[in-house]
Design a protein that fits this description.
mainly beta, 7-stranded mixed sheet, 4-stranded antiparallel sheet, 54% strand
Length: 115
């Protein structure tokens, strides 16, 4: 079965950190660009960050620049999103997406930033 599985979410206080993982099973991520998206309650899904298949290109939403870092380890078939200095407005369900002609989505992982 071809799927993406996100993990690493949880409850963290403002200023804290989390590292999300997006692992692929049933296919290799080597040729796929990967994006992280999030959806807060009552809001539309928005792009957070993306990385090219080689890892040579990355991009970030203005709201997370300087705080989030996307990376990939193709040997582990996994993409990561390191999130530092988290803010309450970062709360939401985080999804990863793999895109290479076809598109795969994970089921999401909840991130809650609250004191």
């Amino acid at each position: 079965q071809l799927q993406l599985v996100e993990s690493g979410g949880g409850l963290v206080q403002p200023g804290g950190s989390l590292r999300l993982s997006c692992a692929a099973s049933g296919f290799t991520l080597d040729y796929y660009a990967i994006g992280w998206f999030r959806q807060a309650p009552g809001k539309e899904r928005e792009g957070v960050s993306c990385i090219s298949s080689s890892g040579g290109y990355t991009n970030y939403a203005d709201s997370v620049k300087g705080r989030f870092t996307i990376s990939r380890d193709n040997a582990k078939n996994t993409v990561y999103l390191q999130m530092n200095n988290l803010k309450p407005e970062d709360t939401g369900v985080y999804y990863c997406n793999a895109e290479y002609g076809v598109s795969y989505w994970g089921q999401g992982t909840q991130v809650t930033v609250s004191s």
